[in-house]
Amino acid sequence: MSQPLDVMVIGGGINGTGIALDAAGRGLDVALCEMNDLGAATSSASSKLIHGGLRYLEQYEFRLVREALAERETLLRAAPHIIWPLRFRLPHQPHLRPAWMIGLGLWLYDHLARRDRLPPSRRVFLNGHGPLQPKLKLAFEYSDAWVDDARLVVLCAMAARERGAHIWPRTRCIQAQRAHGLWQVTLEDASGSRRTVLARVLVNAAGPWASSLFDEVLHTAPPAHLRLVKGSHIVVPRLYDSDDAYILQHRDGRIVFVLPYEQHYSLIGTTDVDYTGDPASVAPAYDEITYLCDVVNEHFRTQISPQQVVHQFAGVRPLMANGDNQAQKASRDYKLLLSADGNEAPLLSVFGGKITTFRALAEDAINQLAAFLPGTGGPWTGQLVLPGGDFNHHAGLQAKLIQEYAWLPLPLARRYVRSYGTLCRQFLQGCQGLEDLGAHLGAGLYSAEVDYLIQQEWARTADDILWRRTKLGLVFNNARQQRLQEYLSSRS
């Protein structure tokens, strides 16, 4: 690449891909490198929620909650295939918070930002009905949204590529230094091959590695330090039949979500534990798993134990270090730290943040960098529609697919809509029956879908496909995994 890039982004999580997308849409020449698969770390280990953060109201973070609530509406419009409304129930525990306090908090939650698509909060008298223990008499209902977090990252990267961005997964930045008013960035891919690119601006969006990047790549002291907080989740067989989610208040001040997950499961999390070590090696500890089980057992009729956990995962949240001793009270807000003294090439570092506010963060980042990049276009992502999101409702698109492809089984059509939206037509086009989707690798995964994921969504490994592009890892046994691996090996 002989001509300098406008922007070089390090980090292929949600903030990095969001910044690359925003920049590319403003006419800038952009590249992004990610040392692993896109969204392989924190961005695929969230609680899968687009939410304002009801509990942040108690920490007086009104600006953060207002921004997140506004983004919730924007993202519901942008990606209806992977983001959809979710109704929450908050059981009332009188000894923890009085009902008037919860009611006031939910009134604020309803009114801090414009709410077009979601119904308001309300009280619900349980009267011993439903999945909760009979001792719980009152609950509060409110709305937020679900997101397939890993697919959100990939779709942002695809949208950036459509606008000319270069996306380089499995490519590590091993050195970056300023020279002659530019950044010289040395990259190394999975084969060990190296290349150097030039860029006018460098963006550090390395997530949990944002501080260590200064030591290992930039060879200078970081302008701020992160507090790494581990959040662990477990997946168990479905606890109840309804599509409601639950937010549980625990006596230690933490909250735990119980979410409907992939039709047959419940997702439970999260914990807040300070973490030291390599973020790539994070995993739930046994005491975290028992903690989550205990919280559920205090609230639900159905009791669970660690032996019933079918899947578990943990992520490291890169939060701003603010001196608070309690990890759950560390702010989820973000800071953009700009280094651009004199005629030096600018460096913008992203510290903190949450998945809900990634678009606003990215817009803020490019607004700050526009002063160094003449000709930069104005903000545009407020009206963004991500790839595959050009439809209104799941049911409507599902019905169209069944009409166009009468042979398509309903469970497969449902999964295609929830994962790909209209993108699924790329691998369905021309098919006259299931046999045209190629080899069946198990659990409704056909080789045509795998080929699409390799060609269009940067998938390379079985984990990429089973856990980040889909969630079929929940139903893939060892024999199916081996068959998928053999298929991937045959294509390499």
TrEMBL record:
<feature type="domain" description="FAD dependent oxidoreductase">
    <location>
        <begin position="6"/>
        <end position="357"/>
    </location>
</feature>
<dbReference type="Pfam" id="PF01266">
    <property type="entry name" value="DAO"/>
</dbReference>
<keyword id="KW-0285">Flavoprotein</keyword>
<keyword id="KW-0560">Oxidoreductase</keyword>
<protein>
    <recommendedName>
        <fullName>Glycerol-3-phosphate dehydrogenase</fullName>
        <ecNumber>1.1.5.3</ecNumber>
    </recommendedName>
</protein>
<dbReference type="Pfam" id="PF16901">
    <property type="entry name" value="DAO_C"/>
</dbReference>
<dbReference type="GO" id="GO:0004368">
    <property type="term" value="F:glycerol-3-phosphate dehydrogenase (quinone) activity"/>
</dbReference>
<keyword id="KW-0274">FAD</keyword>
<dbReference type="InterPro" id="IPR036188">
    <property type="entry name" value="FAD/NAD-bd_sf"/>
</dbReference>
<dbReference type="InterPro" id="IPR006076">
    <property type="entry name" value="FAD-dep_OxRdtase"/>
</dbReference>
<dbReference type="InterPro" id="IPR031656">
    <property type="entry name" value="DAO_C"/>
</dbReference>
<dbReference type="InterPro" id="IPR000447">
    <property type="entry name" value="G3P_DH_FAD-dep"/>
</dbReference>
<feature type="domain" description="Alpha-glycerophosphate oxidase C-terminal">
    <location>
        <begin position="381"/>
        <end position="482"/>
    </location>
</feature>
<comment type="similarity">
    <text>Belongs to the FAD-dependent glycerol-3-phosphate dehydrogenase family.</text>
</comment>
<dbReference type="InterPro" id="IPR038299">
    <property type="entry name" value="DAO_C_sf"/>
</dbReference>
